[in-house]
Amino acid sequence: MSAVVSIDALLRQQRVWKGRGESVPVAIHPTGHLALDQLLPGGGWPESALSEILLAAPGAGELQLLWPTLARLTRAGERVVLVAPPCIPYAPAWLAAGVDLRWLLVIDTEEREALWAAEQCLRSGSCAAVLCWPQRIDDRGLRRLQLAAATGQTLGFACRPLREAVNSSPAALRLALDCHPRQVRLLKCRGALQPGQAVAL
Amino acid sequence: MRWACILLTQLALDGELRGRADHTQPLVLAAGPAQRRVIKAVNPAARQLGLKPGLSLIAAQALASGFVMADYDEQQIEHWQRFLAAWAYRFSSHVSLDYPRALLLEVESSLGLFGPWPRFEQRLRSELTELGFGHRIVLAPNAAAARALANVHDGLVVDEHGLRREIERLPISRCGLAADSAAALARMGLRQVRQLLALPRDTLARRFPAAVLLHLDRLLGVQPQALDCYVPADEFEARIEFNFEVDSHQALLFPLRRLLSDLRVFLAGRDCGVQRFTLSLQHRKLDDTRLPIGLLAPERDAQLLFEVTRSRLEQLQLPGPVLALRLQASDLPAFVPQPKQLFVERPQQSQPWEQLRERLRARLGDQAVYGLVAVADHRPECSWRADRQGGGEPVPGGGPRPGWLLPESQPLNDLLPELLAGPERIESGWWDAGDLRRDYYLVRTRDGRLAWVWQAVDGSGPFMLQGWFA
Fold first, then answer.
1. What are the angstrom distances between the C-alpha of B42 and each of A59, B56, B377?
2. Calpha distance B339→B399 (Å, rounded)
């Protein structure tokens, strides 16, 4: 009987909204920021899903948010891929942040091919996390990325401009990064209470 | 020693059929001068039309229509025999091509690895069937007996005790004697080898060439026989010729898949991988279109090689119709398979990273996928480089460094940045013409971002933006 599924596995999929449980389950992918972890329903990044990070401008704090996760993954020998980053990742700083560069790969390509590359990496299942910076992407493109992340059971991160916050998105988690003051706002989160809360980074 | 004879019953036809997608089409192979071409081999569909070997082509065309004709090419037959020898080299260190259209394998020493014989034989058969070659397999204590018994048996296993009985039962016409000797014996009324063996040796020696007695002794294992050892070639080369002009990529994919699976068989036999190979598309009048393909690591998986070649082929503009496809591989380094975890944590359909990487490189360019290496240099531009494999150690000392670096410094577009830290002087590189003297500051721009900027040492000039503390 393959139809027997444990109730924990069902609850973890977060298809049903629950009231604030008293115990936060152990997260598989904690963000590394304690305040943010407590805010997120699974205690960390939604697994096998796309998370969207909306930025006022490139360099508005996305690395501070992601570095703990990337450091944890690369140190565990899991591959992290940056697809067409907006600037050059400055190797000494990434090392200082604890990222093991042996497991970090950069794919250098133009915008159109970047989406294809990101989808391939997400879908392949051979990477632990894939970061991409799509500038012009529509709902369908995001849905493809989300589906690819679910198929490959990979963490997907899409960094996009803050002005996209008004448009809907199929991503499982949407975070906005503010510079003044430096904080993370929760715009959308699958399986969580009313979003809109903010934590200082 | 025990010898297995793999008799390739229709080598020419099987070799020709492998290059064709449609096996139901009637096909005949013909040889001879243009005026008198004779059919040498037919496939089952052509046999149904009433065609058979020995028929002249003109007679065949009178009998039936709608069959395809191809050349019966001795060179091709030899090519396929060598290809199969490369395949068989996986199973035995002593493979011999001394007998035409047959492979002789010394298998006793291989039984420890592949045995027992029934299982070994099953494996040989299933792989040959997969490759598309009809065959008969016989195991005997010596090579000559194995070859002769394969003429009449399939799947026979003979040991030393049963050998004489089996040899005696062989018909003389099929025991491997030269045609004129066999005919002379037949005219004398001898049918079976038993009758031949009953004759006194001295009269046989007087009436027949020495080869007859030698052959009889070899069959019975009295006279040892030395066979040449097949030595696998150092490079792989294969070619598929079309009888028509191909001008679409799609039509090239089937023969390409065939070529690459042959390459995989060859590589498996030699226990090596391929790192670089060239695919040539041959045209009627133009020069060959060459498509060189380089991989980052030696690979052997046919599916991976096909994916990579396919995506590169699809980007190619064909200058004209293609008549033949040729694959050459000369760089064959040792193949070290990637270790895999016993308990796979990743999903079932996951694609190995090597395959993904080659796919990305094939579409985005050879330099598109790289790792980062930290270099111990204080100049920001020189403190990293792209490499196949990332790495490096953190450099001790120095102030805070930004996570993002701009490809080139640009003037900071901000009127009144708030100075947070600095100056930190970086003065280096006078020895390698990359001289650099700058004062670096950490500033907060008006929109709240943290920037790493520099100014010339004498305090002149604008703030130049070098990177972002993201």
1. 72, 12, 73
2. 41
- Do the interacting molecules here have an ipTM over 0.85? no
What one-character DSSP code corresponds to residue B288? P
In B, which residues are within 8 Å of A129 by CB distance?
none
pLDDT in tens, A70-105: 999 999 888 999 999 988 898 888 888 888 999 999
Helices (H), chain A: 7-12, 34-39, 62-75, 91-96, 111-124, 139-152
- Fold entry, domain B236-331: Dna Ligase; domain 1 (3.30.1490)
CA distance A59 to chain B (A): 4
Residue A20 has pLDDT above 80, yes or no: no
Which of B296, B345, B354, B364 is the best mutation test for A, with the most CBs of A within 10 A?
A: B364
Quick one: how many helices (H) and strands (E) in chain A?
6, 9
Give residue for tokens 């903010």.
A198
* Residue limits of CATH 3.30.1490.100 in chain B: 236-331
Residue A52 β-bridge partners: A158, A174
Q: Are residues B53 and B40 in contact, defined by beta-carbon separation less than 8 angstroms?
A: yes
State how far the alpha carbon of B92 is from the alpha carbons of B32, B221, B264, B311, B404, in Å: 37, 21, 18, 37, 58
Helix, coil or strand: residue A37: helix
Q: Report the residue of chain B nearest A112, measured CA to CA.
A: B364
> What is the rounded CA–CA span in Å between residue B375 and residue A109?
24
Tokens 């992340």 correspond to A149
Rounded to the nearest angstrom, the minimum Cα separation between A88 and chain B is 5
What sign results for the dihedral spanned by CA atoms A137, A143, A147, A153?
positive
Topology, domain A48-200: Rossmann fold (3.40.50)
Tell which residue, B401, B404, B412, has the closest CA to residue A62. Answer: B404
Burial of B11: CB neighbours in 10 Å, binned 0-12, 13-18, 19+: buried
B150 close to B136: Cβ distance less than 8 angstroms = yes
Instruction: Say whether A94 and B372 touch across the interface (CB within 8 A).
Output: yes
Cα-based distances in Å from B450 to B369, B405, B465, B469, B470: 29, 12, 11, 5, 7
Mutate to test the interface with B, among A63, A82, A88 (most CBs of B within 10 A): A88
Q: Which of A181, A130, A30 is nearest to B353 (CA)?
A: A130
Q: Is the pTM of this model over 0.90?
A: no
User: In the CATH scheme, what is the code of domain B3-25+67-220?
Assistant: 3.30.70.270
Dump pLDDT digits (tens) for B363-377.
888 888 999 888 888
Q: What is the CB neighbour count within 10 angstroms for residue B158?
A: 21
Determine whether the interchain pair A90/B380 forms a contact, defined as Cβ–Cβ distance below 8 Å.
Answer: yes
Closest to A108 (Cα-Cα) out of A79, A87, A137: A87
8 Å CB contact between A66 and A130 = no
With left for phi above 0 and alpha for psi between -120 and 50, is residue B228 left, alpha or beta?
beta
